[in-house]
## 1
Amino acid sequence: MLEIKDLHAGIEGREILRGINLTVKAGEVHAIMGPNGSGKSTLASVLAGNEKFTVTGGSVTYKGENLLDLSIEDRARAGLFLGFQYPVEIPGVSMANFLKLAVNEKRKYQGKDPLTAAEFLKMMKERAKVVEIDSKLTNRAVNEGFSGGEKKKNEIFQMAMLEPSLSILDETDSGLDIDALRIVATGVTKLKREDNATVVITHYQRLLDYIVPDVVHVLYNGRIIYSAGKELALELEQRGYDWLIKDHQ
């Protein structure tokens, strides 16, 4: 699904990613943890195609294609989804119109006919149940006036509608209370299939109580310095990062 080899990237001449190596297979969930400033959100931004960041070395292969050669739009059409740490508001653009355009653009890329209005509304109702999102929210402008928890639910609702092959969730648990965390994380779990994959970027083990990872990676100073099974998240919760990063300073 995703193969990252010796990826180097930065912003305004400052190197942030210093040789990332990561393989994500279909059907897997990977968690990326690490101290603030390690490069976790930069990695997500680079994979999504954020033009603020410059790739200076390495390669990224996604479903057999050179991901770095694809535009932001083509990455999305090809099934890459980024869940933002701080989802933006889009005043004046209704959720229905926004998602109908996005869904049909992806279908066009796949050579499929666009959904009719009736088919699309049926799909919206079905997918809204996945994240227990109120229909009142889906009828409003994108994220306008939403609480933090509502914005995160809306992100997962968009993920349910777009059916991505690879989802990258950048600190989706940030700012969520216990109930919202459960709903969002359970929604992500419900969307897991054998033909898709998820990369979860988080600071906290609590999210991984709901989204159980196959592999947990520790990112520090622009490199993945340690990888292990789901038990690693519990150990990091108890011991912190010092025991791992002392040999990489």
## 2
Amino acid sequence: MPDLYKKAHITQILIAINVIIFFAETFMGGSENQAVALRFGAFYTPYILNMNEWYRLFTSMFLHFGPEHLGTNMLSLLALGPYAEKILGKIPYLLVYLFSGLCGNALTLIAELMTHQVSLSAGASGAICGLMGFIVFFSILPRSRRIFPLKNVGLALLCMIVPGITDSSINLYAHIGGAVGGFLMTAIIYGFRRLFNLVHK
């Protein structure tokens, strides 16, 4: 295994948490059982607003519906996470990941309030799309364009968004909110680092 993946400890921990929770869901009645999903903290607007269960904006990031849902997200996390972890550093990477997931769920909440269409949702896709936001940010910087060519990144973003438009079971709002959140948090981290380097020159 390349050093990039061996040293990606935060990515490994995130994957382990998701897998452990998935098996716990399965043991408690099935990962695709709605009652089980709600018990474990799935995203559900009526519970969030009427019962003040705001923690669901966070806990739903670690739940998945079925092995295919889990497998797809964890493979995506394994593909993107180690690069973000190496470039950003462990704590900043974790901040980008969690903030992106929260942004994805926040946009979902806003969209459901506006459309009056409520659904039970869960998954790490918003947080993972935040890693795409991180890549988009570095693809527009002159220094890193060769590593992240804008054309390739744009194609990847298209592949991320199109399925959400054509498949109603995919939470497009979580994807968009996550990507925007990842971009913004990466920009904030990058800005603080630039400022820190200027002050300490």
## 3
Amino acid sequence: MANRSSEQPNVLVFFTDQQRWDTTGVHGNPMGLTPNFDAMARRGTHAARSFTCQPVCGPARSCLQTGLYATTTGCFRNGIPLPWESRTLAHCFGGAGYRTGYIGKWHLYERATIGPVPESHRGGYEYWLASNVLEFTSGAYHTVLYDNNGRPVELPGYRVDAVTDAAIRYIDTHRDEPFFLFVSYIEPHHQNHLDDYPPPDGYRERYTGGWMPPDLAALGGSSHQHLGGYYGMVKRLDEALGRTLDALKSLGLTDRTVVMHTSDHGCHFKTRNSEYKRSCHESSIRVPTAFQGPGFDGGGEIRDLVSLIDLPPTLLDAAGIPAPEEMQGRSVLPLTVGEGEDWPEEVFVQISEAQVGRAVRTRRWKYGVDAPEKNGGQDAGSDRYVEQYLYDLEADPYELTNLVGLESHQEVALVMRERLIRRMVAAGEEAPGIEPAKGRRNGRRRVTAEEARM
């Protein structure tokens, strides 16, 4: 058993799948779904503007495990295995004397593999209780994961509870040694073969017909059919977070455990394309993120824009472990003490499968481009894009009016185009050509150059 150092906090990742930021009370949801997340955000550190860098399950996971953009790992779409030689968080923590464990959905092996993941492709995790594509090996009340020997393990209870029980057992077993535990839920992702969001029994009825975010109210999609079940899943996830935090408290581990809650991407309920994600819109890329524990307690609300790519170096920084030089994000810990003078003004998003797209978001503006001649399931990028979106998030936070091509916003588009190209190059991509959208006249006043750079 390893000797615990007082300077080695445990690190626990509570990772949900397809959870919108505005399911949480701290972001204005009035349904009372997330009291535990809300409390954690208030007593710890709340990354109030947190975004994925790839709104697809597998690619987002490759970014979070490695701290590299999906075009750098090569996992730009689902079904591409994380290269076996990739240096992951598990390698970094394991090399620093931590016990490492992974429980839940992996989604970083071959598309055809829905069962056990070979040891060579488990990202270096020591303890393993996971499924490559959990939505295909389990149902809401039938959870099947695979252990270190590749044997199926059936866990009782609603799936969120089954995974949580396994996580609490791991925490209890490793209470006396520093551990890094990554708990990856499938909820509130839809159950693919049903095209449904199955909550615990009785929860759908509790939340059907409740508050609906303005973008869904305006655009519809499948939200009237699915939002009740989706909210029920979010509620059970928050209850699981509460149970996990209770377990830490009962074991005397709260003050020496860093906990991070985040998600891989959001959900737009078929309002922006023919499915649930894979777009540059807030509903697809904005996620709930909060931290608690050493270095984060009392950190307040971070108003800077934080990307999923920033989370791996943040976790390492919190544990006092140097981040590998190749990581492409940066730790948010300095932001908790007001030391973010050189923090980027925008986040960068790569979009695949539904399209080959790229986007940047500042506090005020959202700008997205598309490569219409490319196949999102085959091509990682393009040397040519066409402007697709421009949103003024100050006036239009739910992105209902696309301003791209308007004469009044040409200056904004030019500034954002330059930002996007700069971020693409910084991420390791070649500088592309971007074709401006066809001009449109409107009655709006022309945006000033200063406003364009906000």
## 4
Amino acid sequence: MIPVNILAVRYLPGADPGFARSLGAPAGHTSLGMLTTDCDDATYIALDAATKAADVEVSYARSFYAGSANASTPNAGEIIGILSGRSPGAVRSGMDAAIAALGRIGFEEANGVPYLAHTVSSVGSYLAKEAGVPLGSAIAYLIAPPLEAMYAMDYALKAADVKLCKLYAPPSETNFGGGLLSGTQSACQAACDAFASAVKEIAARPL
């Protein structure tokens, strides 16, 4: 697994209410926690984990253009994620959960081709909204470079009883592609395995 580097973390225990609302925080959520990392998709999954561990919401999460190798400053990386909550303690608990999750989630690599094929067994509020599925559903989170992603997505969809919930058509901000699939946990894992196998096939023999 390619490790995710956490670049910067900061807390605003009493953010300006108007500022918090402009970042998407619900009413009453004036405590914020911010982080940047060098891997956007792993961080989206980790931020979702925060919503399951504490009474927080993912108020703002955006990828930066061109990827971490082309980051604008040393601590910018590939993504900024902002959690919001009613109390500083809730936000810190959520951030602790996100940071812990980042130690377990990351891209794999096949002949220099990075890919993410990760089953989220029970989504929190953030990924449930992104995928348009009920809270607690299982999803397959699939990401790879453009051609590999589109080729492997078809394999994943045919490998198991899964449904395409969201397609990330290339290029994304980081010039990758992929999507979110839903189904049972075992079906999502089968889809992840098929996606990974297809990416490895291209990595081994691109032409």
